[in-house]
Design goal:
The complex is a heterodimer of chains A (about 270) and B (about 270).
Chain A: H1 2-5, E1 9-12, E2 18-21, H2 26-44, H3 48-54, H4 58-65, H5 73-105, H6 113-128, H7 131-142, H8 146-170, H9 175-182, H10 187-221, H11 229-238, H12 242-270
Helix pairs in contact in A: 4-12, 5-6, 5-8, 5-10, 5-11, 6-8, 7-8, 8-10, 9-10, 10-11, 10-12, 11-12
Chain B: H1 3-9, H2 15-33, H3 45-57, H4 61-65, H5 72-100, H6 108-123, H7 126-137, H8 141-165, H9 169-177, H10 182-217, H11 225-233, H12 237-267
Helix pairs in contact in B: 3-12, 5-8, 5-10, 6-8, 7-8, 8-10, 10-11, 10-12, 11-12
The chains are: A mainly alpha (about 270), B mainly alpha (about 270).
Pfam families (chain B): BPD_transp_1 (PF00528)
Membrane topology (chain B): Multi-pass membrane protein
InterPro entries (chain B): MetI-like (IPR000515), MetI-like_sf (IPR035906), PhnE/PtxC (IPR005769)
């Protein structure tokens, strides 16, 4: 299509032969991007002038966070641990449930097309629902508190790990699986000994990675009443007590840093 | 002992390590169970759930299909615009951060300090940034753009760094040996190696930003998030249904397109 509008460049070589060079698509792509940027600027009301004039306002709150209010520290421990527990429990359960769901969603293990399509569809719907919205719905069903947060994290982990896992399973070398089936092993046994060892390192690594991200997500979930440190954060922001917010953020960063380093250590080991 | 048995005997024995890890995991699991308090569950939870699901399954079609300032289509376009502009600004801002935290470009101490700064930027929740930016720009989509840009920097530069650290230095050395100057080395030696990876990373982040747009609604920073959360708090589940259907279709569509583009960029074919 594109080549028909912009005819290829004709080059005559020294030996008299003519060759055609296709026109680059870059100008077209750049034009599209510029148009998209222009429309976005119009829609969102982006104004560089305001940004240049008022960017110092951004640091007003940062300035109030420093120095953090260390007296607030004893109040933080319990919600912080709650946040970690929520994400740990949600990630663990989610990763465990993801395994059977992923098997049911991989077309090379389950031959029933209907089941495969159904589970793939369920996983994509779950994955596209924003975690915050799932958490909010969960608070209506399970009441305010850590359960709602755990459920939201569980569903997100299930969808995320499940999707990556079934893609892995579908790309696995099926030779060993077929050989074992032909020896008379059942499907589950063949999966356990032929496919599972191939996907295990990646499965664990994805789950750990998801857990890392979940700790960060769990911190926001409290904002909709789903328990954890987000509740305190919300309170601090609501009362404009930014020194307290500073303390919370500081502790959160340290926690995430530690968890990331531990999980990276184990993920490097798995690779 | 035949060949198979010798092979079996040479299998690495890490039973103790696996046992220890599993035990640790089990302990962590039991510890985290203490956060679950079943008495918190509201008794009418089940009927609420049924209400919600039936509401979502009967979406407000009028809201879904009309095109005005409150319609789902307009909100989706606004969300795309926020995510698009935010991703582009974040993508540009992340480049210097990435080079300053790549251990093969700058000395180790600088790289370490930049990494810690990045962890800080990444961990502060979007809600906090949103409030800070609303002081700058007032509530609305503009604040959303700036928040998206700032939250994107963290992940983008982390992925950029991986690409930079994988740079093939031999190409640069051979370019030096045939007399290229610094500018030529950057133009023909570094950019072609990084460009496709960077674009692929940026498209991936655009995907994620669309999904995170709901978060911005909490602080009044534009997009589909705010109407969604208002509708939920007012128990108008038909409206929630139509907003969610719009969002889910949009995200699936963008994800499909972005996957195709990224495969083409990285592997050269669809």
């Amino acid at each position: 299509m594109y080549d028909r509008i912009f005819l290829p460049k004709k080059i005559t070589l020294e030996n008299g032969e003519t060759v055609y060079e296709k026109r680059s698509r870059i100008p077209f792509i750049i034009a599209l991007l510029v148009i998209a940027t222009y429309i976005s600027i119009k829609v969102t009301g982006f104004e560089l002038e305001i940004l240049l004039k008022r960017w110092t306002e951004f640091f007003v709150i940062v300035g109030q966070m420093i120095p953090p209010n260390w007296q607030h520290l004893p109040n933080i421990w319990v919600p912080l641990l709650d946040t970690i527990k929520m994400s740990l429990l949600g990630s663990l359960l989610g990763a465990m449930v993801a395994l059977p769901v992923a098997i049911l969603a991989s077309s090379n293990i389950v031959k029933n097309r209907f089941i495969v399509v159904l589970f793939k569809f369920l996983l994509s719907i779950l994955r596209t629902l924003p975690t915050l919205i799932t958490a909010l719905i969960a608070t209506f069903i399970f009441g305010l508190g850590t359960i709602a947060g755990t459920v939201a994290i569980f569903l997100f982990t299930l969808a995320y790990v499940g999707k990556l896992l079934y893609e892995q399973i579908e790309n696995v070398d099926m030779g060993a699986f077929e050989a074992m089936e032909s020896l008379g092993l059942t499907k589950i046994q063949a999966f356990r000994y032929a496919v599972f060892p191939q996907v295990l390192p990646n499965y664990l690594s994805t789950s750990l990675f998801c857990f890392e991200g979940n700790v960060r997500y769990a911190a926001i979930l409290g904002y909709v009443g789903a328990g954890g440190i987000g509740l305190l954060l919300n309170e601090g922001l609501g009362w404009r007590n930014y020194a307290n917010v500073g303390t919370i953020l500081f502790m959160l960063v340290i926690t995430v840093f530690i968890i990331e380093n531990i999980s990276e250590h184990f993920r490097k080991k798995l690779m | 002992m035949n060949a198979i048995e010798t092979q079996l005997a040479s299998k690495p024995r890490n039973k103790r390590y696996i046992l220890m890890t599993s035990l640790l995991l089990l302990l962590l699991f039991l510890w985290s169970l203490s956060t679950i308090n079943l008495r918190e569950i509201e008794t009418q939870g089940f009927s609420v759930a049924v209400n919600i699901i039936s509401g979502i399954l009967q979406p407000d079609l009028e809201l879904l299909l009309t095109f005005n300032q409150q319609g789902v289509l307009y909100l989706l376009i606004e969300t795309i615009a926020i995510a698009f502009l935010g991703t582009i600004i974040g993508a540009i801002l992340a480049i210097p951060f990435a080079f300053f935290s790549a251990s093969n470009v700058v000395p180790a101490p600088i790289a370490y300090v930049t990494r810690i700064a990045l962890i800080f930027i990444r961990t502060v929740p979007a809600i906090v940034y949103g409030l800070m930016f609303i002081r700058v720009t007032g509530p609305g989509a503009f604040a959303g753009v700036l928040t998206m840009a700032l939250t994107s920097i963290g992940m983008l530069s982390k992925l950029y760094v991986d690409a930079i650290e994988d740079l093939d230095a031999r190409i640069l050395e051979s370019m030096t040996s045939i007399g290229c100057n610094t500018f030529e080395k950057i133009r023909f030696g570094i950019i072609p190696q990084l460009f496709a990876m960077f674009i692929s990373i940026v498209i991936y982040r655009f995907d994620m930003n669309l999904r995170d747009a709901a978060v911005l609604g909490l602080v009044g920073a534009g997009g589909i998030g705010a109407p969604l959360i208002f509708a939920m708090n007012a128990y108008r589940w038909n409206e929630v249904g139509s907003l969610l259907i719009g969002l889910v279709i949009l995200i699936l569509l963008v994800e499909w397109i972005s996957n195709r583009v990224r495969t083409k960029l990285v592997r050269g074919k669809v």
